[in-house]
Amino acid sequence: MSKPFRLGVIGSGQGSNFVAIAEAITAGRIPAEIVLVLSDVETAGILEHARQRQLPARYLPPGKFRTKLEEAAEQSLVAQLEAAQVDLVVLAGFMRVLKGDFLRAFAGRIVNIHPSLLPCFPGLQAWKQALDYGVKVTGCTVHFVDAGIDSGAIIGQQTVPVLDHDTPETLHRRIHQAEHELYPRCVAALAQGDISVHGRLVFWRPKT
Q1: Are 111 and 202 in contact (CB under 8 A)?
Q2: CA 49 to CA 58: how far, in whole Å?
Q3: Distance CA 167, CA 155 (A)
Q4: CA–CA gap between residue 11 and residue 97 (Å, rounded)
Q5: For 68, which DSSP code?
Q6: pTM for this predicted structure
Q7: Pick from 199, 155, 201: which is nearest to 179 by CA?
Q8: 179 in helix, strand or coil?
């Protein structure tokens, strides 16, 4: 019997995408297990959600920088994920840029979700960028993580209409709902081996 597909989840906030993935695992929609949850915020909701599910949940002191991890913190992150033997690193609202050793250690095995239809509106507050620009459709994107900002190969996308009466808050809320559908679906495909990557092109195995 093959060992279960192992997920390591990293987040900085409330952890709603983590909850969506954990619930999909419990429901049997993702053939995987979450073996470690890490956060750079000691009081982050994602850690509390993990502890409620009796999953290993740890605070990772980030160091003095605001937008990235100190070198020692990044080395600790790599060591903990390697010790947990993770097959896939899932970023769920992690608010720091990951570089160097981390990207090399898990090359091709790090995924993130972004609240826009990339390559449109990378970076922070993508829902507000979309609203300010005046687009009529936005959405969310699951992508592999590389050294750029939201620039990795796209795994999947889901559209969300921009309504005439939308505020940044209402639009963000609906994008979140789409994320909770898309992210588990993409993680499930990766766990099942239904994804193949050729350069920047990502292919899903046809359903039989």
Answers
A1: no
A2: 12
A3: 28
A4: 12
A5: B
A6: 0.96
A7: 155
A8: helix
| 172 pLDDT higher than 60 | yes
pLDDT of residue 208: 64
Helix pair 45-52, 16-26: axis angle to 10 deg: 20
115, HSE (Cβ side, Cα atoms, 13 Å): 22
Q: Catalytic one among 114, 143, 172, 180? A: 114
Count other C-beta atoms under 10 Å from residue 114's C-beta: 24
Here the tokens at position 89 are 């690193």
* pLDDT > 90? residue 48: yes
Q: What is the C-alpha to C-alpha distance for residues 40 and 125, in angstroms, rounded to an integer?
A: 20
CATH number for domain 5-200, candidates 3.40.50.170, 3.10.330.20, 3.40.50.1970, 3.30.420.40: 3.40.50.170
Backbone φ and ψ for 7, nearest 5 degrees, come out as -110, 135
d(CA 39, CA 9) in angstroms, rounded, equals: 9
Q: Decide if 114 is catalytic.
A: yes
E-strand ranges in the chain read 5-11, 32-39, 57-59, 88-91, 110-114, 137-144, 154-161, 195-198, 201-204
Domain spans of the chain, in order of start? 5-200
